[in-house]
Specification:
Blueprint (H helix, E strand, L loop, with lengths): L19 H14 L1 H4 L3 H6 L2 H9 L8 H8 L6 H4 L7 H10 L19 H4 L4 H17 L5 E5 L5 H10 L2 E6 L2 H28 L14 E5 L6 H9 L3 E4 L6 E4 L6 E9 L1 H12 L3 E9 L8 H4 L31 H9 L5 H8 L3 H5 L3 H24 L4 E4 L14 H12 L1 E4 L16 H19 L4 H13 L1 H17 L4 E7 L10 E7 L2
Parallel strand pairs: 1-2, 1-6, 2-3, 6-7
Antiparallel strand pairs: 4-5, 7-11, 8-9, 10-11
Helix pairs in contact: 1-15, 1-22, 5-21, 9-10, 16-22, 18-20, 18-21
């Protein structure tokens, strides 16, 4: 069942009566106008004294804004007129431009009709509230839209949350495809545990009614789990899952029979498909005859393969795997299959190229709602990490990156409200988690000790002293980073809107596809909430 929407590509009010192509052109124009903002990573912000350029453009008073004003600036696309009036006049043009082009992201899944399911506690175990919200909304949308389709292929299925709910509440047959071996194993284990709990629940209910049943004997559910760690085209993908014998419930018959998958229409879905995965799923839907309905929610735009070097990263994880579901004949250039995808946006960017797309996509992944709801301590910690990271990148570039690419992982240091100091917490974590890869050789990230036998001495006597020098040198820029972060966040909705509109335009290029952009989650709960809903009209 198609959603009840007046305009299928979900434009902002200003563009509701104009063409999608005109809307795309305005998005590109607006982002070209402000690309000097999103083209500067923290490292360059510090090295090139970027706050001085901001002062020239917006006025020095931009750095005297209160935290409340900065939070409002970060969520510009959702402000009312009274809130806009509270902002400095010099940023109003940026705010108005952002509001004009950003897609509405207010949950509108009620456009589909139907009710949201309520999860039994059996399914909630081990599932965080955010994931519960996402699974309920996505499963309800699939269940209310599937019509006569009884099979779901969940690409990048993770631990199988969505499939377990769809099988139980809607009686659907599930094919989970996952490339992370840990998630794959946990999905198999969890599915078995869920089946046991459901059986025990049913057994208890029957015994309370005085009905005795046989002891538990595990039977396979209507779920098939596949681990994929290689590149596949559409034909190969079909072969991978065609051997799956699904247990199909005959309507009006308690017995089961087994049928091949190959001739069955399917719902193709992916919940927060990371990086290239969502783009690959759209390609698959457009070219795979079995796929009749698509519901896709993207995520991690900063992992999109916008260059050949980026494509080589994390090639053993399905969520980051550069899976070419189309085959080499369609993927002609390194960036042709992920962004831009549509002919319209390709043409627009050929005339007005956007630079530093990786930085822009990283911004589109930021949660402005998270910034809006931070307290002062959390806001300060967020900016502190931004500053720390910029300083470390500058020093690594000067000392190591002439011969080595450097990665350092700091996300596991604790919650965003936990204050970590530079010397006592941040630097030890960088040292512990940094990895090197020699430039000019096949990418392989290894611990520094495998390259430098004396790396401890290099770290202690060469790198750390330089880090502390740079830390003090750029200290004056710390407070200005709060303003920089808020101004960046003003553009996040516009960047994400361009990515989503490009994908919608790509789907619409196929005359057999009718596509919609629908906010599916409550944005304050799940910030990446724009879903692509599409069906084969034939």
């Amino acid at each position: 069942t198609a959603p009840r929407m007046e305009v299928r590509h979900n434009p902002p009010p200003f563009w509701s009566d104009r063409t999608p192509e005109e809307y795309a052109a305005d998005l590109v124009d607006m982002l070209c106008k402000y690309q000097w903002i999103f083209s500067i990573p923290p490292k360059e912000y510090l090295k090139h004294r970027f706050w001085e350029l901001m002062s020239d453009y917006f006025g020095a008073h931009i750095f005297t804004m209160t935290e409340d004003q900065l939070r409002m600036l970060a969520t510009a696309s959702t402000l009312n007129e009274n809130q806009i009036a509270m902002l400095p006049e010099s940023v109003l043009e940026l705010v108005i431009d952002s509001r004009r082009v950003t897609m509405p992201m207010v949950h509108a899944a009620d456009n589909f009709g139907g009710e949201h399911i309520e999860l039994d506690r059996i399914f909630i175990q081990g599932m965080k509230e955010k994931k519960q919200h996402e699974v309920i909304r996505l499963a309800s949308l699939i269940g209310n839209s599937k019509e006569s389709i009884n099979t779901v292929v969940d690409v990048g299925a993770g631990k199988g949350w969505v499939g377990q709910v769809l099988e139980y509440y809607y009686g659907m047959n599930i094919i989970n495809v996952e490339g992370n071996p840990g998630h794959n194993n946990m999905a198999v284990k969890r599915n078995r545990e869920v089946q046991v709990r459901l059986y025990n629940k049913r057994k208890k209910e029957l015994r309370e009614k005085g009905i005795q049943i046989e002891e538990f004997e595990y039977k396979e559910s209507n779920t098939c789990q596949y681990f994929v760690d290689f590149n596949v085209n559409v034909e190969a993908f079909n072969e991978v899952i065609s051997g799956c014998h699904l247990s199909i419930h005959n309507e009006g018959n308690e017995g089961k029979n087994h049928t091949e998958f190959t001739d069955k229409p399917v719902v193709l879905t992916s919940l927060h498909g990371c990086g290239d995965l969502s783009a690959s799923v759209l390609h698959l839907f457009s070219h795979w005859d079995n796929a009749k309905l698509l519901i896709n929610v993207g995520c991690c735009y900063h992992k999109l393969s916008i260059c050949e070097e980026k494509k080589a990263e994390n090639d053993r994880t399905f969520a980051d795997l550069r899976v070419n579901l189309l085959g080499a004949d369609i993927n002609q250039t390194p960036d042709s299959k992920v962004f831009p995808m549509s002919k319209v946006v390709k043409r627009l960017l050929a005339d007005k190229p956007l630079n530093q797309l990786e930085n822009a996509f990283g911004m589109a992944t930021k949660s402005t709602y998270g910034l809006e709801n931070m307290n002062s301590e959390e806001f300060d910690t967020c900016v502190r990490y931004l500053y720390y990271r910029g300083v470390v990148q500058i020093v690594f570039e000067e000392i190591l990156e002439k011969k080595y690419s450097v990665k350092f992982y700091t996300r596991r240091m604790g919650g965003r409200s936990k204050v970590e100091t530079w010397n006592d917490h941040y630097l030890p974590n960088v040292r512990k988690r940094m990895r090197l890869s020699p430039i000019g050789q096949p990418e392989e990230w290894v611990e520094p000790e495998l390259i430098f036998s004396n790396f401890n001495e290099i770290w202690q006597f060469e790198i750390v002293p330089e880090l502390n020098i740079k830390y003090r040198e750029y200290k004056l820029a710390f407070e200005s980073l709060k303003t920089f972060l808020a101004i960046e966040c003003t553009l996040t909705g516009a960047i994400e809107s361009l990515i989503i509109l490009d994908r919608w335009l790509y789907l619409e290029e196929n005359p057999d596809i009718e596509a919609y952009v629908v906010p599916i989650f409550e944005k304050i709960v799940s910030p990446r909430n724009l879903s692509l809903f599409a069906k084969k009209v034939s």
